[in-house]
Amino acid sequence: MEGALVRKATAEDRKEVLSFCVGTFDWGDYIDEVYDFWLGAPDSLFLVAETAGKPVGIVHARQMRHGVAWLEGLRVSPAHRREGVGTALTAKAMEMLSEGGIKTLRLLVESNNEASMALAFGLGFREEATWAFYHGRKPREMPSHGPHWVTPASASNVWSRLDSSDLFNQACRSYENDWAIYPLESDDFSELVKGRMVATMGEGKEAALAVVHYGRTEGRDAKACFLLGDRPAVKELAAFVISKAARSGARRLHVSCPNHAGTTEGLKASGFRPGFRTSLVYRRNL
Ligand SMILES: CC(C)(COP(=O)(O)OP(=O)(O)OC[C@H]1O[C@@H](n2cnc3c(N)ncnc32)[C@H](O)[C@@H]1OP(=O)(O)O)[C@@H](O)C(=O)NCCC(=O)NCCS
What we know:
The protein is elongated, with a radius of gyration of 20 Å. It has helices at about 15-20, 30-40, 85-100, 115-120, 155-165, 165-170, 185-195, 230-250, 260-270; strands at about 5-10, 45-50, 55-65, 70-75, 105-110, 125-135, 150, 175, 180-185, 200, 210-215, 220-230, 255-260, 275-285. The longest helix has 18 residues, at about 230-250. The protein starts with a strand and ends with a strand. It has a twelve-stranded mixed sheet, with helices on both faces. Strands 8-9 form a two-stranded antiparallel ribbon. The chain has two domains: about 5-100, Gcn5-related N-acetyltransferase (GNAT) (Aminopeptidase), CATH 3.40.630.30; about 135-285, 3-Layer(aba) Sandwich (Aminopeptidase). Helices cover about 30% and strands about 30% of the residues. The structure holds coenzyme A. Coenzyme A binds next to strand 4, helix 3 and helix 4. Coenzyme A (COA) binds near residues 86 and 122.
């Protein structure tokens, strides 16, 4: 659209924005739950496109470590689609993030979202990895044999294993939390280990590994991202994670993993139902 103005979102835009962020997907939408958080969160870039003084589109970016940012929540009012608003929002976010020192930008697209894939492709994004998400399940106590938390003493060995794994390198050297793919380098790994958030099972090629967030601070559901492992080790590790989630008082446990057959088989064998369609991670260097 000629002349769509892209600017930072404000609290005053809320009502108008939420009026076009309803029932966006077959499962609904989540913008109403995050709007206020996105306005105030540190490292957050929340933009609105307006035309004739009225908001008609939004996009949000999380600025992460290592010069990486995550783009999410792109929405254009159905009355203003195909007018270039989505492109203008994304292009402005790219420009502002680049000025702020961001070098790599990623986003997630469901494999049936033709419009979003075409938009991203047109702006130079390319598919980097495929991720699998599962419906959350109620955690409960389950027996497991062998899994344990990675400790600071064993962290560097475990990191070497992850660092050199083909699966990890093909899956953007990242982990998922709260619907975003975060870069995972050795300093991030050490911090997660210190926070008792990395669980592992087995050795060498037989090993499984998961990054776990119990939502202790946010009061949210528990999340676990399985980064390594084939069916038997993942199944055993999942039992450990499910039990720990139950003990932490989480109401539900959500899991995801890079779309690798061994890992997805292990999660399905642990009772997780595949959710949504295949999710594609797109990447663009800025
Ligand atoms: C995806 C979405 C943001 C696109 O916004 P938009 O303002 O209509 O997009 P643009 O007008 O900038 O379109 C840019 C290009 O994307 C592609 N595109 C956009 N909509 C399309 C559609 N419905 N079908 C196929 N291609 C489409 C086209 O290549 C288009 O260029 P063109 O119009 O010159 O052919 C909008 O459809 C939307 O809000 N969808 C629902 C929410 C959503 O899916 N968000 C993305 C989540 S990852």
